[in-house]
Amino acid sequence: MKREKLIIKIKNGIMRIKLLQKISGGLLLVLLSCSSLLAQEKEINGVVVDQTTGQGLSGAVVSIKGEPSNVSADVLGKFKIRVTPADSILVVSYIGYKRTQVNIAGQDYVTIKMNSESQDLSDVVVVGYGQQKKIALTGSVSTVDMKKIEDFPSLNLASSLVGQVNGLSINTATQRPGGAVGLTIRNPQNLSKNGNGSGTLYIIDDVVRTASDFNLLDPNEIESISVLKDAEAAIYGIDGANGAIVVRTKKGEIGKPKFSVSGSFGTANATQLPKMLTGLQLATWNNDYNQTANNYTIDSAGYIGGSVTKKLAAWYTPDELAYFANPANNTDYLAQAFKPANVERISMNVSGGTNKVRYFIGGDYVNQNSNFSGVNSYKVGLRANVEANLARGLMVSLNLSNTMSYSRNFWYKTSGTTESLDQDVTSLAEVAPWQKYFIDGNPVLLNTSYNGNTDIDNVNVFLFENSNNYTKSLNYVMNALGKISYEIPGIKGLTAAVSFNENVNFGFPKQYGTSFNYYQYSGLGENNHIPGGTILKEVNIKNGDRVRITPNYATVYQLDGTLTYHKTFGKNHLNLLGIYEQTEQYNEGVNAEADGVIITGLDNQNFTIGTQSSNQASSIAESGKLSYIGRANYDYDNTYLLEAVFRRDGSTSLPPANRYGNFGSVSAGWVLSNEHFIKDHFSFFDLLKLRASLGFTGSDNTVPYGYAQAYQYGTGSGGGAVFNEGERGLGIKATNIPNPYATWDHQTKTDYGLDMAFLHNRLSFTGDYYWNHNYDLLTGLSSSVPATIGLTTPNENYGIINAFGYELSVGWHDNIDKDWSYNVTSFFSWMDDKNIREDLATGLIGTIQDHQGKSDDQGVFGYDYVGMFRTQAQVDAFMTAHPGYTIFGQTPEVGMLNYKDLNGDNQITADGNDQEYLSHKASNHNNLGFNFGVTFKSLSINVVSGMSWGGQAVIPGNEITSSVAKDITQNRPAFWADHWTPDNTNAKYPAPYWMSDYNVTSNFWFVSAFSAQIQNVNISYTIPQKWSSRAGIASARFYAVCTNALNLFNPYPDNYRDPNTGILQYPNLRTFSFGLNIGL
To answer: Has the keyword Transmembrane been applied to this entry (predicted)?
Structure first.
């Protein structure tokens, strides 16, 4: 062929050829063919939208199958991409949606509809050390819909999970902002007095973490949360006995950078403050008490007739009662001090990347002031997660996080009071409404006329608010997780990985308390009960009068070496997992106190003049675990499912001979909806699956090194001996009884489950029945061991308890038309247990209090109320029929309560012989959740509600009387206004004086335990993209959230308290917050 020169120009995909010299026919034919092919390359236009809402998905990544290049959709979800006839498949990915492939052959414009991951049965679910297809799960695993909790402004992530998962309970020790919140799964059992207890295991990115670490997470940095309920948690061995919460944090996705910013502001206030007696009612209650106590004779003017002078101080005279009756002289001090608090939250993140490197960087800030001035809590968090493909099959990742949390409260440490944060609520609720905390600017020493107790009364919250007395805690948590994985060449499906996680926690709790000068006033009124008068004396009351610091440091590492193998042959799928895991942790802390604070000095121990060594202490602890883990999953055609797990754990908490334990599980599933006999005859089933699991777990629920003898070194009661004339020398003494034979708590978990879906997956049902056999439970046998032993008894493997229950969940979601959609989810759970063997005192064996063979919850144990003595005639008639009858040593009097005499000895006593179980259950064992959501175009509403029943509630003793039972000057709930007096014999409540008679557990104080509330409401509106895009914004969404929205039922008399919190506890809080989320 003759060579000739030519010029080739390519423009807009069209090849243009200019011959400079004549060319042969063969070459011309080849060139023309190339020109024809290039000319067929074309541009495809399209849009990526949500299947349900039709909203464009900004930032969706569109690529040609098998090609590395890609484009990103704009703010409306629109894209353009050049293809050739050979490029017939587009691949689309977007965070939170199922990866989608589309055939574009013969099309110039495509609309690609993507399904949310939560709507597809082929979803993957995060489980222990990996993930599985939802269809292939053989255990009981629930997931949290992150979109439903992403807007909640909470300092504790656990609080956001209320009503989200069946069988998951939220345990709140206090409603106080920053207070601890825990989670329990199903019905955990634990008898140990120390050790791990019944807490849930928390896993973050396959690393064991603490409940505190979990609560510090922000919803916007979380990809998924899974709850492992049954044998699924067996892969965690000794830590998984009580179930596991497994969290995956977000990673970067391929595509251009995507920014998200959310901010909200709101308020939090009490759902209800307690209703207490008015000043007149309280003073009248006190007079009625004293009239009975001292057998006063009251004349027509309201004065005591013939009384002893020393008794006069306890009597409220008519002029004083008239003063208290004036509303202007009454103050609800709790309502005055408890004000709405601000709640602020900001979170932002950016993510993106390429085929080589992907990243996610996020930060959050949450601040919640307390409802008392000068008290607040906040947290700040940062996270960076980077993944990089260094070579084919070789990937490294680094996940860094840093969180700072801070809380500040008032420190209440007046002499004799319990060091409790709730002293503010207690003192404000119980103070007499007529009292004055300040007179002429001077703090007033409040007088208690009954027993001279001044501790609770003189916690002056308003004085503390203007002081620098505090208890505060500052904590830093730093975590670094590095991982490298490599796909072994030559063995398809085999991957090796090594990960190392280091967690460091620094804490700096500190308490600072000074002393205050109070002034005692003479008082006004005939008996000096009206605040005012002249100053009698100045009294200095110490509030701790010390500086205490308790810095602590903790570090823990986890090293994992992992091998995974995936193999598909025909319709058979096999997945194997093997892990070597090593964990060690070290803790150290110091307690240092110094007394004698210099008032004008700083909150530092250098500004004290008292003792600095009497309360010094330090602590140190070190422990480790070593584990070997294996798991095998097999399925045939996604129809027949099998899983086997093995784990061997070693713990330093147990003696060397019993240090290692073997745990594991087996489970199976059968997807009947894949069988032809179901498809052909019951085609309405989209899913019908049976599953069963059997797991063997355990726990090292004992004090570390409890197998070793411990000694104490010192003098006097702390050790040593007495020589000569009472001189004490240094020495040592044994402090425990070691148990070298202690071994693991053991647990056998059984679960049977049924999963169904109908009507194109719009209707779903899940049911589970579980039975857990807990044996060899470590417990201290204190009840059956004589007290004369003189030492703390060791934990022994003794207890046996069976726990069981069932869970049912039903869900429905549907579109009414292109604008309207809705979803409804309801779940029900019931649980109980049976004691097989427990520590029991010899005298109780065979009695009504012997729970062996019975449920641990036998109901409320107390006295059976049979009536109130309302008239003297009733008392006389009763005593004639029951001569010598006494109630707690007291001959019956008018205004007293009477109880059933079970043993017929004419005596109601406190020795248990007249007590019985008064109800079927004490706690609610039935729980029902009902959640629903409605969407109209861009507007959506989601509601979480729930109820529980089956137990029996009782008005607690500290609300029947007061926190100091015999201090009658402390206020009481409003229902006490209707108490027995000679003029009110048909009263609902007894005479005030007979506290020993009525301040006992009895069915007189029963109220319904039924509970129903709308827990959370979330309303959001997404601005249409055609509007937001004009501002260059991919998405904009406004939202409003209300938590603890509404109590639907209050069983307490006169609704004097919130059903969920007592009158002496920090009130339950209702929050309203408004926010905006912007995507760029």
So the answer is: yes
